[in-house]
Specification:
alpha+beta, FAD/NAD(P)-binding domain, D-Amino Acid Oxidase, Chain A, domain 2, eight-stranded mixed beta sheet, 7 helices, 27% helix, 29% strand, binds flavin-adenine dinucleotide
């Protein structure tokens, strides 16, 4: 029988960052994942941004999350010997003079100044807007599919990865831990993301409010350059006259795959903000594992012994997972307190 400290179920953004963090702290890990069944991370645009631009509010624990991600993703690049971390200023294009004034005011405030450049800059060529734009700092993009491939490759080298569906019905209690076939572990952590949110996992986790999202890839008449433009929707230049445009939000109508309605919404957006012709060349949909009270689900499973949950990253997995993984792993290693507001037990009546 093979023994590890932790079994991790799921190799999306959550499972990958958590596994890296566990191993960094010296734990042995075995991961189960079906990459082809991934319904969220492989669609993610991979942006991180500590400010909710529409309301000019900081994301919960934003400063600590930024500090953590700036250390973790480059370290994961070193660990895997692959590149996927790209600091990139997000350009906020203002819809009106009020938004511009709000930007200037906030950029002068100590809590926002690390993230908002006070200068008002011109609009890039071919973007239609009348009120200027502001550049964010400490924002960027993780090329998620590349990161997941890199982590999977690294784990496969060490035989720490099984590309198969984990069957919760076969999990047994074993001494102080768990047993799954010929694999024993101190504990098991569910990072099943969208599958849990959709109730497709046999491990019941409550509290989700799944949100469907869609993105399109367009070919533009001119190159957008190295720009990530936020104008309600974002438009990210990917080189070679191509850009990624997204993302949409839908709380119901989860028919499988991309929808004509949301494609239209995104094409209407490009039409409104892009001064030139374009053609849609790709369209993808995914499910965000969001939670009813907008806090992730991290901690012991409310009913199952030695089973833990690391899920509920909603639309901000890239920003949140490095910080939250560190929290959970430090609890395992040193007994430091868990984040009360994230405990899965809060969702059980
Ligand atoms: C259109 C769109 C755009 C987005 N853009 C961004 C963005 O710019 N920035 C950002 O931070 N977030 C973004 N998100 C949100 C982000 O995608 C999610 O928060 C994130 O992917 C969740 O990751 P996860 O690892 O928790 O879950 P998932 O990505 O769902 O991964 C779970 C993995 O577990 C596997 N799995 C599940 N059950 C089992 C089992 N029993 N056995 C084996 N394997 C199993 C699945 O196959 C999958 O590979 C976006 C989402 C969408 C839909």
């Amino acid at each position: 029988m093979k023994y590890v400290d932790y079994i991790v179920v799921g190799g999306g953004i959550s499972g990958s960052v958590l596994t890296y963090t566990l191993m960094k702290y010296g734990a042995s890990v075995h991961v189960f994942d079906v990459p082809q069944a991934n319904k969220s991370s492989i669609v993610a645009s991979g942006l991180w941004n500590p400010i909710v631009l529409k309301r000019m509010k900081k994301v919960w624990n934003a400063d600590a999350m930024i500090e953590s991600l700036q250390a973790v993703y480059p370290a994961m690049e070193n660990w895997t010997n692959q590149k996927f971390y790209e600091p990139l200023p997000i350009r906020r294009v203002f819809h009106n003079a009020g938004e511009q004034n709000q930007w200037v005011e906030h950029s002068d405030h100590p809590s926002f100044s690390p993230y908002l450049n006070e200068a008002i800059s011109d609009i890039p060529e071919y973007i239609i807007a009348a009120h200027g734009s502001g550049l964010m700092q400490q924002t960027g993009r993780v090329h998620v599919s590349k990161m997941l491939d890199a982590v999977r490759g690294k784990l496969k080298q060490g035989e720490h990865f099984s590309e198969e569906e984990f069957d919760w019905d076969r999990l047994e209690a074993h001494g102080d831990g768990v047993k799954y076939g010929a694999l024993g572990a101190h504990a098991i952590i569910s990072c099943e993301g969208a599958q849990s949110a959709l109730g497709e996992s046999k491990l019941e986790v409550t509290g989700f409010s799944a949100v469907k999202g869609e993105v399109i890839k367009v070919e533009l008449a001119h190159d957008l350059g190295k720009e990530c433009i936020h104008q309600g929707h974002f438009m990210i230049g990917e080189g070679g006259n191509r850009a990624l445009v997204g993302a949409t939000y839908a709380w119901d109508g989860f028919e499988e795959g991309p929808s004509a309605l949301k494609r239209q919404e995104l094409e209407d957006h490009v039409q409104k903000v892009w001064d030139g012709s374009f053609k849609t060349i790709g369209h993808k949909a995914g499910i965000r594992p969001a939670v009813k009270d907008r806090r992730p689900l991290i901690g012991p499973h409310p009913k199952e012994k030695n089973v833990w949950v690391f899920n509920g990253m909603g639309s901000r997995a890239v920003l949140m997972t490095p910080y939250l993984a560190q929290h959970l792993v430090e609890h395992f290693m040193y007994g430091s307190p868990l984040l009360e507001e994230c405990l899965p037990a809060r969702m059980v009546k």
